[in-house]
Amino acid sequence: MTGFLRRLKRLNYRHYIAIGITLGFIAIAVFRFPYAFTRLLESIRDFGLSIAYYFDELFNNGGKAFNPTVNEVSKVSLPSMLGITDSYDDFKLKWQTYWTFFTNETIFNGYMQEISNVLYEIAKWLLILLPLLILFYLLFKRYFDNQNNKYNVDSKAVKGFRWLETNVYLPVNRFIRQFLDFLNKYKAYKIIWIVTWVYAFNFITILIEAFAYYFYLVASFDLLHIYRQVYKLSVDLSAVVEFIPLWGWLIIAYIILCIIRKNIAISRLNHFERRNRGFINERPIVYMLCGTMGTKKTTTITDMALSQEVMFRNKAFERILENDIKFPYFPWIVLENEVKRCMEYHEIYNLATCRKYVAKKKSRWLKSKRRDKIFNYEFEKYGIKHNDKLKIEDVWDVIENYVQLYFIYIIESSLLISNYAIRTDNLLADIGNFPMWNTGFFKRDSRLIDAYSRHSHILDFDSLRLGRKLIENNKYADSFEFGVVVLTEIGKERGNNLELMEKKKKDDLPNQKNDLFNYWLKMVRHSATVDNFPFVKVITDEQRPASWGADARDLCDIVTIVTNSEQMLAMPFFFVSELLHSFFFSKFEELYYTYRYNRSDNTLPMYLFKIFIAKFHKFYQGKYNLYGYSVSKVKVEAGTQDGKKKYSNYYLSNKKIYSKRFSTDCFSDYFMAKSLRSNYGINDLPEYETEKANINELLEQNSYFMNDLLLGLFNLPQPPTDD
Amino acid sequence: MKIVKNVIKLLIAILIALIIGYFFYVGGKV
After folding, report:
1. For chain A, how are helix, strand and coil distributed in percent, rounded to 5?
2. Contact call for residues A309 and A536 (beta carbons, < 8 A)
3. First and final C-alpha spacing in chain A
4. How far is Cα of residue A51 from the mean position of the Cα atoms in its chain?
5. Which of A42, A255, A316, A566 supports an S-S bond with A408, CB 3.0-4.6 Å?
């Protein structure tokens, strides 16, 4: 006994609370819903008899042995809802009366009277509230008149509030959080609670009755009694409808609205994503995005690259299936496991080694045609040729395609190779069989992204040069085969014909003319084609198309960003929050900085107002970050710039592209180092003395133009030129 | 412009709520 007591003492005290709640719920279920048990028994009886009737009808004597009770009215006297009576004739009468009343002028006037009564009530409250608001406003204004420099000094009220926060709010909050964690750990409590309420609200009864009627209906085809089922349903549902008060239903309605609008938002964002993918698919292997500064060029190419990566995975997956079913009896899992093993041992690390691996396996099989030499495939039984009505394919050709596609599919690192960093967050789920990618962009938890994110590969430009390379014997020089190559500011890297005039093909040093980058660009699909599909895309951006030499640019489509729309929300039914936010936030902005200008202490009204605004703004901003998007109007033309221009829309979803995807100032580290070398900042720069610059000030500009003018003015010799 | 749109949406929502309310009101009179 003492041991038992000791164990009880050691028991987490939350168990007592949870048991107390459980007993409370059970007591409510028993005493507040006494009919639930009878209804449950009746439903089990109905179900049993319907099942018996069903089998009797099917296999025995046409259902005469059993009398199904599913159409009988319950013995318990629960009220019905919405005027649904047990007799259909009564209901018909009420239905007709309803529509007569609907168009009745007196009834309509009565409704109008009701509305005016409600408005009158609201007006009454407003009459009481308005003076209070004015009083509050005046008190609030008083704060601004008291100017002070009491830095971060709390008023008495704030101190009291902070005390309440520390001693009441935070402990309660912590307790609730810990209790929720406790409930997640001991799931039995939650399950018991759910079962209790589901029982009390007759939901179990409704489910059993539904099955009872289903089995009765499929055996009897008795559609006449459907109304009786509607009546029984309304009776059973009345338990929950009457128990939950109006405000409870309003909260439930709001929660349902939130779920619906969230789902609509996600499906709209997915729709935009599919349209974007269609746009990218229409582009050639190389294309260039242009636009002036700040038109979201790099953002857009990053977005396109992310979509393209997913499309490559999907394409590989699609083709894997195509090849799989060419030889439906082939044990692909055996091959896949071998490929995985070879990847671990770095025997397979690119497409060429995939092909080499299959060639080696094939030659071994040709020497000795045994099952174990062809991944245990029963080739004698199922054959080694596949006729697709265009050509005859050998099983080894299909294996070669399969291995390459599988390799592309299961590489866990990103398929992006770029000259700036891009974060990718595709998830590979693998329990040792066929792995599956989760490539959704819109449902990622921002708290977890650091745990599973990968980043794009560092682009070594030498790997894109077929000719001279910057580094002799560069170990990555021949590494590029397939993937999405993302090049920002391509013109600055490659230059155009004018800029490269001085550079010669026969120069000793590597340059843009002798590195054969353009040959690579023209032939890039050759290294990346698997099963007739090129797994390569080169996406570039530059401010103006002419910055990139015509030889390369002519291969591209030039996509120019014409306009960017303002932020929009894919989630509907958000207008009330929008209105409240715009009202409160603008008021807060105005008041807060007037307050900050005048005083530095903390007073309760401003403290509370700020907390409220911070929470509301977080909610509002969170919705825009999750479901916000903007539309860019883009113009597409051929790289030769002589064809027809086509206009299209491209969608940028906030959740996809602004979730730590890339740094907009991706080259800022260079400028940071440059600025750190300086001992002067903007505050140290000399200022003009008046609104008109004097000669010395003009000289201080170190401008070519000014220098020429001033040298001419004073008849000084011009500086020597290169000529 | 955004505010005007949202106010219009709010007015439409109130109108729909009043219409739905009328359905229930008539139901209560039957």
Report:
1. 60, 10, 30
2. no
3. 109
4. 46
5. A316
At A62, the pLDDT band (50, 70, 90 cuts) reads low
For residue B1, the distance in angstroms to the closest alpha carbon of chain A comes to: 12
Spatial separation of the C-alpha atoms in residues A516 and A467, rounded to whole Å? 5
Judged against a pLDDT cut of 70, whether residue A478 lies above it is answered with yes
Contact A101 B9 (CB under 8 A): no
List CB contacts of A388: < 8 A, sequence separation 6 or more.
A326
**Strand partners for A539:** A287, A486
- Give the integer Cα–Cα distance in Å for A569 and A327: 48
Nearest to A599 by CA among A145, A148, A156, A158: A148
Report yes or no: A421 and A665 within 8 Å, Cβ to Cβ.
no
Q: Which residue reads 């580290």 in tokens?
A: A669
H helices present in A103-186, as ranges: 105-145, 156-164, 170-185
Q: Which of B1, B5, B18, B26 to mutate to test the interface with A (most CBs of A within 10 A)?
A: B26
Q: How far apart are CA A551 and CA A496, in angstroms?
A: 9
* Residue A4's pLDDT band (cuts 50, 70, 90): confident
Is residue A25 within 8 A of residue A193, CB to CB? The reply is yes
pTM to 2 decimals? 0.87
- Side-chain half-sphere of A498: how many Cα atoms within 13 Å? 5
Count of all residues that appear for chain A in the document: 723
Q: Amino acid identity of A572? A: P
Helix (H), strand (E) at residue B4? helix B2-29
What are the chain B neighbours of A115 within 8 Å (beta carbons)?
A: 18
Across the interface, of A101, A114, A575, the residue whose CB is closest to B30 is A101
pLDDT of residue A73: 79
Report which residue type is found at A609: F
Interface check B14 vs A, CB under 8 A: no
* Sign of torsion over alpha carbons A618, A621, A623, A625: negative
Residue A300 and residue A287 in contact, taking contact as beta carbons nearer than 8 Å: no
Q: Which two tokens stand for residue A168?
A: 């009441």
Determine the Cα–Cα distance for residues A459 and A601; give it in Å rounded to an integer.
53
Minimum-distance CB partner of A575 among B9, B26, B30: B9
Q: Taking CB atoms and an 8 Å limit, are A98 and B27 in contact across chains?
A: yes
Q: What is the ipTM of this complex?
A: 0.92
